[in-house]
Specification:
It is built from two helices and no strands. The chain is 63% helix and 0% strand. The longest helix has 23 residues.
Length: 59
């Protein structure tokens, strides 16, 4: 589950960046912020759900 948390945090970090502010900044529409970050976070959330539904098998 720790790996899923790391993936979620990385996804949020990829989505973050400088705000547009008073001057228009076209970087807010970059591929990294619009696609890669949210998809990485989504993968982390899916991995977290899988980890909850299928716990580790004890030997």
């Amino acid at each position: 589950m720790a790996l899923a948390l790391v993936i979620i945090v990385v996804g949020f970090a990829l989505t973050a960046g400088e705000p547009s502010g008073e001057v228009y900044n076209p970087d807010i529409f970059s591929f990294r912020r619009i696609t890669v970050g949210p998809m990485t976070s989504l993968a982390g959330f899916v991995l977290m759900i899988v980890a909850i539904l299928f716990p580790a098998k004890k030997k």
